[in-house]
Records
---
Amino acid sequence: MAASIRALLGAYLDGARVEASFEFMGVDTQLIEDGTYFVVECEHRIAGCGGWSRRATLFGGDHSEGRDARLLDPATEPARVRAMYTHPDFTRLGIGRLVLSLCESAAAREGFRSMELMATVAGEPLYAACGFSVLERVEVPTSQGVTVPGARMAKLIS
């Protein structure tokens, strides 16, 4: 995750914003406990990871403030795509698309009809290519006096 954040986000943002993003990006063990997190291995290495959630939190790791573990209603609320990372050595190989397809299929099996996520500037092109549309652009405040840009995106699923 750290290598992905530093290299991939670093291609779009200055160092201060990259470092500030660690305040809200990182491991979310709730996804692991819920059994909704996927890890893709390639050449005996972790190439990428990501998951989906039936819980209300839109983004953030274990250490992030404002998390909400409330279960979502699949009939009226979108599932969340969460904690997507691809190791820089494995970008542009379909890892992100694979994880997204696994998330979409699993969420659809549980009755969800849409998905929502908070994209980084580095992740937004992948999500757009996979059918997600921007709902709003945000600047996430940090304690380091800088904001980190993001895009809340959504997609209908079947």
---
Amino acid sequence: MMPVISNTTVISNFAAVERLGLLKRRFARLHISDQVFEEIKAGLLQGYAFYANLDRQMFPFSETGWLHLTALNTIDEFQTFGRLTTTLNSGESSCLSIAHHRKWAFLSDDKAARRAGSGLKVPISGTVGVLLSLVRANMIPLTEADMALEEMIQTGYYSPVASLREILSSSKRPRPSEMDEG
């Protein structure tokens, strides 16, 4: 399975309903950029208590952390980051730059970030895609995924569907994401 890097939006949706364990179950290792970590720290200072203790799940702060801090580290990554920051925030820009240059997948629910990622040919998924992949891989039942989605919607997440059943029972099968493999 290809490495995956996540924007703040997906982390926030799962953290807000105390279901980060679902992300961990789907991705034994999930990367976040240094800039996303800064956004998370800023969110904690602004009162988003669901970010508390997130550093305990983060490598290198915790040796057993499954969230891995990842930095921009090549000239190409920094140049792409600089171009992307003209239209996106630094968390989205850094994740997209890393994903593009390292051939990773990207998690985000931000429409502009997803559009930019598509232009860069980066495999993209988001909160609904992660929940669907958990169901399709028989990691959780549909009822649990729908319950998590409903809780996220109640906390302010704008979901394109009210239930994953709408997608799973649809006659139009969504095109499989590279992230759904494995």
---
Amino acid sequence: MECRTWPRTDMASEAHRLWQKSAAALDRLNGVKAEEQEAGAFKVFCVQIDSEEGAKALGKPCGRYVTLELPRFFTRGDEEFSAAVAQLASLLRPLLRGSDGLSLVVGLGNEQITPDALGPAAVRQVFPTRHLKQSETKLFSSFSEVAVCTPGVLGATGIESAAQIAAFCASLKPARVIVVDALAGADPERLCRTVQLADSGIAPGSGVGNDRACLSEASLGVPVTAIGVPTVIDAALFGGETSLAQLFVTPRDIDAVIRAAGRLIGYAIDLALHPGLNFEELVELLE
């Protein structure tokens, strides 16, 4: 699919900006619409890819990509935290396709490698209700049905994440799958400062050249919404030396970033899936 000559990135917003700077920007890219919006105190960049030409040019599957840009990932004690959670939840809701029913939330990544631990960190903040709705139907009638899983990585389990998730889908028959994973970026200014939402699914590991089986509606049989944060950037972008070709750079405070980003994403998923909950009630429920 990819025909780009610019650095590898999982971010559609970055791919579009890089395309604009390339020679191809002299022509209009058919089937791609991009726009920047103001969302309260934050910026939102939307990319809609509707053609194979656009998908090939940007190296991304057809679909809608929404990027929330933040000055930083706010911690629980910051005044801006609740506003960021509410904004991310409002951007996520329209991307949650599928009928009413079970939402399966998947945290991809390796908990032993901090820049890759975003998925597990996020799902720890997601409130699972599937078992509660089955045993306490009346008490949890206003909650949506949610299940979570962290399949780990092939090197630790010997099983492809995609195979595990497919098995969960076959057994649980969810209405939708929400996947959270760490991404690779190409813009140092947006590293660990943006959240990308996409309704096209995800190819785990593609940003660092470790492609695994794609998680999409075509592969799982249900709509897949992907949520990610760029946590690493190719070191070669800083020097171009061949010795840097296999290295990736991440911020020195990445452990704090993963905790903050995981909480932000987890809270936003909760608010998006349980519209009857407000932020204060969610805090009491989780903390």
---
Amino acid sequence: MKLTMTVTVLLLASFCSAHAQVSPPAAANATIGGKKLSISYSAPSMRGRKIMGGLVPYGEWWRTGADSATMFRTEADLDIGGLKVPKGAYSIYTLPGAKEWQLIVNKQTGQFGTEYDQKQDLGRVKMNLTQTPAPVEKFKIELLSTGGNKGLLKMTWERTELSVPITVQ
């Protein structure tokens, strides 16, 4: 009886583990103007779900990934789409919309993604919104150097691509 129960528990644990839906950790890194910028996040997948306007509702702030709040670190003072961001560590959230998105830079760090405190916002900026030519299964954040002290923060998922320019001060 004890052996049967042990085998059953092991089989159940193995089955659950094999079928668990996880959002793996991901990172984006870039050197812009000689300074390092990095983003740490969890990358959820579509898995057949409606994402924009569904899993990610319009008009409500979103943790911009899964699990813990998305962490942004910069070695330099930045201008992100017109928002002055001093060097340091921040959390990144977004405010999705059908026709417009905003990037939220928040001074609180280390919290779970659902623990958003608007009073801690450093600021918000409009993001450029376009549609991808094909669906993107896994949420992706990129930091891209576009030359000199200029760069781009880019996010893609489902059929949505968002971007905002970054300038190292």
